[in-house]
Amino acid sequence: MVDLVDSNKGTGNVLELVGDSRAADATEDSFEALYRQRYRDVYRYALLMLRRPDEAEDATGEAFDRAYRAWQLGRKPAGPALPWLLLITRRLVIDKLRRRRLISWLPIGALGPRREPSEEPQTGRSEFWIWFEKFAQELPGRQREVLILRYQRDLDDESIGEIMGLSASGVRSLSARACATLRRNPEIWQ
Questions:
Q1: What angle do CA 153, 96, 107 make, to 5 degrees?
Q2: Structural domain of 95
Q3: Is residue 31 part of a domain?
C-alpha cells in the first residue's frame, strides 16, 4: 500500500510517495516468528540425523538462511512451514553425510572421529526420547528418519512423504519396516 504524505519543505507543499513499511515489516516479522517457533524443531531433527551438535548447528543455520532467501523471493511454503523447513534441512543433512563419507577414507586422522561421539549429558530430555534415540540408532538411515519424523516431530504421512520424496503409502511401508526391524532384534531391547 502506498500513502501520499503532505509535507512542508521550504516554501511549498510537497507530496511524497511513502511505501507502507508495515507490509515489509510484516513479512520479516512473520519469518522471524517462524524462526523463533521452529528453530528447536529444525535443530533437533538435524542433530538426530547428524549426531554431532556442531554440524547440526551449521545445518540449522544454513537451512534458515536458505529459507529466508526463498521467503524474500516470494517462495513461501504453501501449507505448514515445518515440512518445508525440514525438507531444506534434510537436503543439507544428506550433503553433510555424503561429504563425511567421502572424506572418511582419507588417512588424515585430524579430520574427524572414526567412531560416534560419546553420549552427551541427557539433561532436559525425557527418558522416553533417550530410549527412542537409542533404538533409532540401530536402524538404517531412512528408517530412522521416518520414525523421527513420525513419532518425534508428529508429522502426518503426506508431510513426511513431501520431506523424504515418498508417497504416503511409501512412508507407511518404510515405517512398518522400521518397526518390524526393531521387533526382530531383541538384542536392542537390552
A1: 140
A2: 1-8+15-103
A3: yes
Task: Give me the pLDDT at residue 36, please.
Answer: 93
CA distance 9 to 13: 6
Whether residues 25 and 73 fall in one domain: yes
132 and 78 in one domain?
no
Backbone angles phi, psi at 154, to 5 degrees: 60, 45
Q: pTM here?
A: 0.56
**What burial letters (b/e) apply to 112-148, b meaning 16+ CB within 10 Å?**
eeeeeeeeeeeeeeeeeeeebbebbeebeeebbbbbb
| Cα–Cα dist 177/170, whole Å | 10
- Please state the rounded mean pLDDT for residues 116-120: 50
Whether residue 179 sits in one domain with residue 87: no
Please calculate the CA angle 61-65-68 and round it to the nearest 5 degrees: 135
pLDDT tens-digit series, residues 4-20 = 444 444 444 444 434 44
Q: For 164-181, write each residue's pLDDT tens digit.
A: 888 999 999 998 888 888
Query: CB–CB of 128/163 below 8 Å?
Result: no
Statement to judge: residues 63 and 135 lie in one domain = no
Regarding whether 138 and 94 lie in a shared domain, the answer is no
